[in-house]
Design brief:
Layout lengths: L1 H13 L4 H27 L1 H4 L16 H19 L3 H19 L1 H5 L14 E2 L14 E2 L2 H21 L7 H17 L9 E2 L2 E2 H20 L2
Helix pairs in contact: 1-2, 1-5, 2-4, 5-7, 5-8, 7-8, 8-9
Protein backbone atom coordinates (compact mmCIF):
# COMPACT_ATOMS: atom_id res chain seq x y z
CA UNK A 1 0.00 0.00 0.00
CA UNK A 2 2.83 2.38 0.88
CA UNK A 3 4.58 1.66 -2.45
CA UNK A 4 1.35 2.23 -4.38
CA UNK A 5 0.55 5.53 -2.63
CA UNK A 6 4.13 6.78 -3.10
CA UNK A 7 4.01 6.00 -6.82
CA UNK A 8 0.55 7.52 -7.19
CA UNK A 9 1.95 10.69 -5.58
CA UNK A 10 4.57 10.87 -8.33
CA UNK A 11 2.11 10.08 -11.14
CA UNK A 12 -0.43 12.61 -9.83
CA UNK A 13 2.20 15.35 -10.10
CA UNK A 14 2.77 14.40 -13.75
CA UNK A 15 -0.94 14.98 -14.36
CA UNK A 16 -1.02 18.19 -12.27
CA UNK A 17 -3.38 16.67 -9.72
CA UNK A 18 -3.33 17.84 -6.09
CA UNK A 19 -1.35 15.77 -3.59
CA UNK A 20 -3.90 16.54 -0.88
CA UNK A 21 -6.61 15.01 -3.04
CA UNK A 22 -4.45 11.92 -3.54
CA UNK A 23 -3.98 11.37 0.19
CA UNK A 24 -7.70 11.84 0.80
CA UNK A 25 -8.59 9.39 -1.98
CA UNK A 26 -5.92 6.89 -0.86
CA UNK A 27 -7.55 6.65 2.57
CA UNK A 28 -10.90 5.89 0.98
CA UNK A 29 -9.43 3.30 -1.38
CA UNK A 30 -7.37 1.48 1.27
CA UNK A 31 -10.29 1.17 3.68
CA UNK A 32 -12.76 0.15 0.96
CA UNK A 33 -10.22 -2.26 -0.51
CA UNK A 34 -9.73 -4.08 2.79
CA UNK A 35 -13.49 -4.26 3.41
CA UNK A 36 -14.13 -5.48 -0.13
CA UNK A 37 -11.34 -8.04 0.08
CA UNK A 38 -12.77 -9.47 3.29
CA UNK A 39 -16.41 -9.51 2.18
CA UNK A 40 -15.48 -11.23 -1.09
CA UNK A 41 -13.46 -13.89 0.72
CA UNK A 42 -16.14 -14.51 3.35
CA UNK A 43 -19.26 -14.55 1.18
CA UNK A 44 -17.91 -15.69 -2.20
CA UNK A 45 -14.78 -17.78 -1.64
CA UNK A 46 -15.20 -19.42 1.77
CA UNK A 47 -18.80 -19.02 2.93
CA UNK A 48 -19.03 -22.77 3.65
CA UNK A 49 -16.48 -22.21 6.41
CA UNK A 50 -17.58 -18.82 7.72
CA UNK A 51 -21.26 -19.76 7.81
CA UNK A 52 -20.28 -22.19 10.55
CA UNK A 53 -17.92 -19.74 12.27
CA UNK A 54 -19.55 -16.30 12.17
CA UNK A 55 -17.37 -15.15 15.07
CA UNK A 56 -14.30 -15.35 12.78
CA UNK A 57 -15.56 -13.01 10.05
CA UNK A 58 -13.73 -9.99 11.46
CA UNK A 59 -10.47 -11.85 12.13
CA UNK A 60 -8.57 -10.57 9.10
CA UNK A 61 -5.26 -11.10 10.92
CA UNK A 62 -5.86 -14.82 10.40
CA UNK A 63 -5.92 -14.44 6.62
CA UNK A 64 -8.73 -14.22 4.12
CA UNK A 65 -8.33 -11.10 1.98
CA UNK A 66 -9.12 -11.67 -1.71
CA UNK A 67 -7.66 -9.35 -4.37
CA UNK A 68 -10.79 -9.47 -6.56
CA UNK A 69 -12.79 -8.08 -3.64
CA UNK A 70 -10.14 -5.44 -3.00
CA UNK A 71 -10.38 -4.30 -6.64
CA UNK A 72 -14.17 -4.10 -6.46
CA UNK A 73 -14.07 -2.22 -3.16
CA UNK A 74 -11.42 0.16 -4.46
CA UNK A 75 -13.39 0.89 -7.64
CA UNK A 76 -16.49 1.70 -5.61
CA UNK A 77 -14.45 4.03 -3.41
CA UNK A 78 -12.91 5.87 -6.37
CA UNK A 79 -16.32 6.27 -8.04
CA UNK A 80 -17.94 7.55 -4.83
CA UNK A 81 -15.08 9.93 -4.02
CA UNK A 82 -14.93 11.36 -7.55
CA UNK A 83 -18.67 11.93 -7.63
CA UNK A 84 -18.48 13.67 -4.24
CA UNK A 85 -15.47 15.78 -5.23
CA UNK A 86 -16.69 16.32 -8.80
CA UNK A 87 -13.45 15.02 -10.30
CA UNK A 88 -12.64 12.95 -13.38
CA UNK A 89 -12.82 9.33 -12.29
CA UNK A 90 -10.75 8.05 -15.21
CA UNK A 91 -7.78 10.29 -14.42
CA UNK A 92 -7.58 8.89 -10.91
CA UNK A 93 -8.28 5.30 -11.95
CA UNK A 94 -5.45 5.45 -14.49
CA UNK A 95 -3.01 6.56 -11.80
CA UNK A 96 -4.17 3.94 -9.30
CA UNK A 97 -4.19 1.04 -11.77
CA UNK A 98 -0.62 1.79 -12.85
CA UNK A 99 0.54 1.54 -9.22
CA UNK A 100 -1.70 -1.36 -8.20
CA UNK A 101 0.25 -4.20 -9.89
CA UNK A 102 3.43 -2.97 -8.18
CA UNK A 103 1.69 -3.28 -4.81
CA UNK A 104 0.42 -6.73 -5.80
CA UNK A 105 3.90 -7.84 -6.87
CA UNK A 106 5.23 -6.89 -3.43
CA UNK A 107 2.24 -8.23 -1.52
CA UNK A 108 2.48 -11.70 -3.06
CA UNK A 109 5.67 -12.29 -1.07
CA UNK A 110 3.49 -12.50 2.01
CA UNK A 111 2.31 -15.84 0.63
CA UNK A 112 5.91 -17.05 0.69
CA UNK A 113 6.47 -16.12 4.32
CA UNK A 114 3.15 -17.74 5.25
CA UNK A 115 3.92 -20.88 3.17
CA UNK A 116 0.57 -20.59 1.38
CA UNK A 117 -0.87 -20.52 -2.14
CA UNK A 118 1.81 -22.76 -3.61
CA UNK A 119 1.56 -24.99 -6.65
CA UNK A 120 2.09 -28.72 -7.13
CA UNK A 121 5.16 -30.76 -6.17
CA UNK A 122 8.27 -30.03 -8.23
CA UNK A 123 11.92 -30.97 -8.69
CA UNK A 124 12.76 -27.60 -10.23
CA UNK A 125 15.68 -25.78 -8.59
CA UNK A 126 13.44 -22.86 -7.61
CA UNK A 127 10.91 -25.05 -5.82
CA UNK A 128 10.11 -23.92 -2.26
CA UNK A 129 10.03 -26.17 0.82
CA UNK A 130 6.65 -26.50 2.53
CA UNK A 131 6.32 -27.82 6.07
CA UNK A 132 4.64 -31.22 6.26
CA UNK A 133 1.68 -29.95 8.28
CA UNK A 134 0.92 -27.39 5.55
CA UNK A 135 1.06 -29.80 2.59
CA UNK A 136 -2.08 -31.23 0.98
CA UNK A 137 -2.74 -34.71 2.33
CA UNK A 138 -2.07 -36.46 -0.98
CA UNK A 139 1.34 -34.74 -1.24
CA UNK A 140 2.60 -35.36 2.30
CA UNK A 141 5.66 -37.21 0.97
CA UNK A 142 6.79 -34.26 -1.18
CA UNK A 143 8.93 -31.47 0.23
CA UNK A 144 9.28 -28.92 -2.59
CA UNK A 145 6.44 -27.20 -4.42
CA UNK A 146 5.92 -24.70 -7.23
CA UNK A 147 6.36 -21.09 -5.99
CA UNK A 148 3.04 -19.84 -7.34
CA UNK A 149 3.48 -16.59 -5.42
CA UNK A 150 6.71 -15.90 -7.33
CA UNK A 151 5.15 -16.50 -10.74
CA UNK A 152 2.32 -14.10 -10.02
CA UNK A 153 4.66 -11.56 -8.44
CA UNK A 154 6.86 -11.51 -11.55
CA UNK A 155 3.91 -11.27 -13.91
CA UNK A 156 2.45 -8.40 -11.87
CA UNK A 157 5.83 -6.67 -11.99
CA UNK A 158 5.91 -7.01 -15.79
CA UNK A 159 2.37 -5.62 -16.02
CA UNK A 160 3.41 -2.70 -13.82
CA UNK A 161 6.43 -1.87 -16.00
CA UNK A 162 4.33 -1.96 -19.18
CA UNK A 163 1.64 0.29 -17.71
CA UNK A 164 4.19 2.71 -16.24
CA UNK A 165 6.07 3.10 -19.53
CA UNK A 166 2.86 3.64 -21.50
CA UNK A 167 1.59 6.11 -18.90
CA UNK A 168 4.77 8.18 -18.81
CA UNK A 169 5.07 8.26 -22.59
CA UNK A 170 1.42 9.35 -22.93
CA UNK A 171 0.74 6.53 -25.39
CA UNK A 172 -2.72 5.90 -23.98
CA UNK A 173 -5.90 7.92 -23.84
CA UNK A 174 -7.57 8.63 -20.50
CA UNK A 175 -9.18 5.45 -19.22
CA UNK A 176 -7.11 3.04 -21.30
CA UNK A 177 -4.58 2.34 -18.54
CA UNK A 178 -7.48 1.17 -16.40
CA UNK A 179 -8.69 -1.09 -19.19
CA UNK A 180 -5.23 -2.56 -19.74
CA UNK A 181 -4.78 -3.26 -16.05
CA UNK A 182 -8.06 -5.16 -15.86
CA UNK A 183 -7.19 -7.13 -18.99
CA UNK A 184 -3.66 -7.84 -17.80
CA UNK A 185 -4.46 -8.91 -14.28
CA UNK A 186 -7.51 -10.84 -15.42
CA UNK A 187 -5.28 -12.93 -17.69
CA UNK A 188 -2.56 -13.31 -15.04
CA UNK A 189 -4.93 -14.54 -12.36
CA UNK A 190 -6.80 -16.82 -14.78
CA UNK A 191 -3.50 -18.55 -15.59
CA UNK A 192 -2.43 -18.73 -11.95
CA UNK A 193 -5.58 -20.57 -10.94
CA UNK A 194 -4.35 -23.57 -12.95
CA UNK A 195 -1.22 -23.64 -10.77
CA UNK A 196 -2.50 -22.77 -7.30
CA UNK A 197 -3.58 -25.64 -5.06
CA UNK A 198 -5.52 -23.71 -2.43
CA UNK A 199 -9.12 -24.69 -1.86
CA UNK A 200 -11.62 -22.22 -3.28
CA UNK A 201 -15.27 -22.02 -4.26
CA UNK A 202 -16.33 -23.69 -7.50
CA UNK A 203 -19.12 -22.83 -9.93
CA UNK A 204 -20.04 -25.60 -12.36
CA UNK A 205 -16.64 -27.15 -11.72
CA UNK A 206 -14.73 -23.94 -12.45
CA UNK A 207 -12.77 -22.04 -9.78
CA UNK A 208 -14.67 -18.86 -8.91
CA UNK A 209 -11.51 -16.67 -9.06
CA UNK A 210 -11.08 -17.78 -12.68
CA UNK A 211 -14.61 -16.68 -13.51
CA UNK A 212 -14.00 -13.37 -11.74
CA UNK A 213 -10.77 -12.95 -13.71
CA UNK A 214 -12.54 -13.56 -17.02
CA UNK A 215 -15.10 -10.92 -16.04
CA UNK A 216 -12.30 -8.46 -15.17
CA UNK A 217 -10.64 -9.01 -18.54
CA UNK A 218 -13.90 -8.60 -20.47
CA UNK A 219 -14.74 -5.38 -18.62
CA UNK A 220 -11.19 -4.15 -19.21
CA UNK A 221 -11.43 -4.86 -22.93
CA UNK A 222 -14.73 -2.99 -23.13
CA UNK A 223 -13.25 0.01 -21.30
CA UNK A 224 -10.15 0.01 -23.49
CA UNK A 225 -12.21 -0.02 -26.70
CA UNK A 226 -14.66 2.62 -25.51
CA UNK A 227 -11.85 4.93 -24.37
CA UNK A 228 -9.97 4.49 -27.65
CA UNK A 229 -12.66 6.42 -29.53
Amino acid sequence: MIAAVALCWHLAKLRNLKSDDLLDLALWVVIAGIIGARLYDVFIIDWAHFSQHLDRILNIWQGGLAIHGAIIGGLIAVYTWCRYKKQNIWQWLDIITVALPLAQAIGRWGNYFNSELFGGPTNLPWGIPIAENLRPFIYKSFEYFQPAFLYESLMNLCLFIILLVLFKKNHLKIGQSTGLYLIGYGIIRFIMEFIRMDVTALFMGIRVPQLASILLAVIGLAIFKIKSK
